[in-house]
Amino acid sequence: MKRREFVLAGLAGLGATAAGCSTAEFHKVAPYVPTPLPVVDAMLRLAAVRRSDVVYDLGCGDGRFVLSAARYYGARGVGVDIDQGLVNEANAAARAAGLSDRARFLVQDLFETDISEATVITLFLYPEMNARLLPKFRSDLRPGTRIVSHQFRIGDWKPDRIEAARAGNRTHPIFLWIV
Ligand SMILES: C[S@@+](CC[C@H](N)C(=O)[O-])C[C@H]1O[C@@H](n2cnc3c(N)ncnc32)[C@H](O)[C@@H]1O
């Protein structure tokens, strides 16, 4: 799917807004399009998240992956986003849910984030961004770390599993790689 289609599919299909992006930035970074909650659940199940896991969501939006991993699986997690407003929202949701000890959100460029402690990575980014992350995944993640991506592959890396998650009347491809 091309960038324009990604944005249009996201905006039309998921009813989201491209918050916090100027026109110029809009084409350089993935806009904020939240993953539907049933797809979040399916991805966390596909990654077999458990209490001992440390889940990193690169481009975390409102924090839904890390918050769900903490709330439903007892995992710890970190979400990073370049949008201060979204990070504030995610930290407020963590506080409101009493999950601040297990769910942290930081304003950070995901390409600069230290991901070495992660045991699970969650992604919903442009394919170009996933491909750019591939060398970092190969060098910084420990063997056995699971990566799950909504909608897009990671360069030419063959996924270990591909599934289809349903949300409303749409089907969303989700991918799993095990480092
Ligand atoms: C498609 S949204 C996904 C949000 C969330 N992961 C989800 O699936 O609901 C992509 C997010 O990545 C963030 N983002 C884009 N480029 C980024 C970068 N270089 N560093 C950190 N966050 C970035 C955007 O602000 C946006 O919130």
Topology:
Elements: H1 3-14, H2 23-26, H3 37-46, E1 54-58, H4 64-73, E2 76-81, H5 84-96, E3 103-107, E4 120-123, H6 127-140, E5 146-150, E6 161-167, E7 170-178
Parallel strand pairs: 1-2, 1-4, 2-3, 4-5
Antiparallel strand pairs: 5-7, 6-7
Q: What features would you describe in this structure?
A:
The protein is α/β, with parallel strands linked by helices and 179 residues long. The protein has a single domain (35-178), classed as 3-Layer(aba) Sandwich (Rossmann fold). The chain is 35% helix and 23% strand. The protein is built from 6 helices and 7 strands; from the N terminus they run αααβαβαββαβββ. A 7-stranded mixed sheet has the order 3-2-1-4-5-7-6, with helices on one face. A hairpin with a 2-residue loop joins strand 6 and strand 7. Helix 3 (37-46) crosses helix 4. The radius of gyration is 15 Å and the shape is globular. The two termini are 25 Å apart. Residues 1-27 have low confidence and may be disordered.
User: What is the molecular shape?
Assistant: globular
Determine the N-to-C terminus distance. 25 Å
Q: Give the total of domains.
A: 1
Instruction: Count up the helices.
Output: 6
The total strand number stands at 7
- Largest sheet at a glance? 7 strands, mixed
Binned strand content? 15-25%
Oligomeric state of shown chains: single chain
> What would CATH call the homologous superfamily?
Vaccinia Virus protein VP39
CATH structural architecture? 3-Layer(aba) Sandwich
N to C succession of SSEs: HHHEHEHEEHEEE
- What hetero molecules are bound to the protein chains? S-adenosylmethionine
CATH class type: Alpha Beta
Mean pLDDT: 88
Regions with pLDDT < 50 over 5+ consecutive residues? Answer: 1-27
